[in-house]
Amino acid sequence: MDIARRKTSCEKHRCFGGGKPDTVRSHGSGRSAAWLARLFRVQEVVSSNLTAPTIFPIPTYDLKTSPAVPPSLLVELTSITEHLQPGRIFPKPQPLEVELGCGDASLTVAYAALHPERNFLGVERLLGRLVKLDKKGRRLGLTNLRGLRIESAYLLEWLLPPQSVSVLHVYFPDPWPKKKHRRHRLINERFPALAHQVLQPLGKVFLRTDDADYFGQMGEVFAADKRFQPSNTPAELAAVMTDFEKDFNAAGIPTLRAAYQRD
Q1: Cβ proximity of 119 and 94 under 8 Å
Q2: How much is the pTM?
Q3: b/e per residue 129-162 (b: at least 16 CB within 10 A)
Q4: Residue 174 is among the residues annotated as catalytic for this protein
Q5: Which of 56, 82, 175, 200 sits CB 3.0–4.6 Å from 214 for a disulfide?
Q6: Considering 62, 104, 134, 174, which one is annotated as catalytic?
C-alpha cells in the first residue's frame, strides 16, 4: 500500500526544482550553475513551443462553443526571461490564483467554475496533463482559466511579476521521500520568500500533501518566515478535491492541509 501510494503521489504532481541555492558560480555569468542548468531545461520546453506552433493542437473532441472562449486555454510562452503579463493572458483584470503542479487540473477547473470572478492559471510541466485542462475548461466554457507548460519552481522565481498573485495553490507535490533527494522538494526553505515576492499583500498559500514528513517541513519553513502567519483553508476549497486525493481518502489515507497568509 505504501509503495503504491508513494508512486501515485510522485507521478501525479511532479514539481521540479527546489533545494538549497548552489554556491558554485558559472564563469563570468553571475548566475549559479544550478540556475543555468534549470534555465537550459526550461529552454528545452519553451523552444519546442517556439519552433513547433502545433505543440498545443486544438483537440478534435466535441466541445460547448462560446464566442468568449478562445480556441485554446493553453498559453504559449514566448520568453523565459521576461515576466508574464496576466492582463494579456486573461480577458478580464481579476484576482489571479496560481496552482503550481496542477496535474490533470481536476481541482483547478472545478474551482475556476465556482469562481468566475477570479482568474486561474494551472502550471504543469507535462503537456498531456495540460491538454486535459484545456479540454475540461473549454467544455465548461471557462474564460477565467489558462494553462501554462513550465517548471513550477522556475515560474515562481523568475516569471511571475511581483505582487501579481492573490493565491498560490500547491497540492500533493512530489514528496521526494529519500533523505538524499529532499533538496528537490518544491516547498523548501526558499519557498516562503519566493511566495512572498509574487503574492499581493494579505495573499495566501494553500498546501496539501499526504506525506507526514513533507507536511512537517512545510510547517517549519513557513514558521521560520515571520512575514507569514497560519491561516485556514475555506470549507468550500477543502471540499474540492483532486482525483488522486479522492483515491487516497478512499484508501484511508488522510489529506494534510495547511494555509498561510502573508503580511
Answers
A1: yes
A2: 0.76
A3: bbbbbbbbbbebebbbbbbbbbbbbbbbbbbbee
A4: yes
A5: 175
A6: 174
Residue the block writes with cell 529552454 = 43
Residue with cell 487516497: 248
Of 42, 39, 38, 4, nearest to 184 by C-alpha is 38
Backbone region of residue 252 per phi and psi (left: phi > 0; alpha: psi in -120 to 50; beta: other values)? left
List phi, psi (to 5°) of 197. Answer: -65, -40
Q: How far apart are CA 261 and CA 158, in angstroms?
A: 21
Residue-wise pLDDT tens digits, 170-201: 999 999 888 888 889 999 999 999 999 999 99
* Rounded CA separation 157/154 (Å): 5
Q: Which residue has the cell 502573508?
A: 262
Domains, the chain, in order of start with CATH, read 2-262 (3.40.50.150)
The C-alpha atoms of residue 121 and residue 114 are separated, in whole angstroms, by 15
Rounded distance between C-alpha atoms, residue 16 and residue 122, angstroms:
15
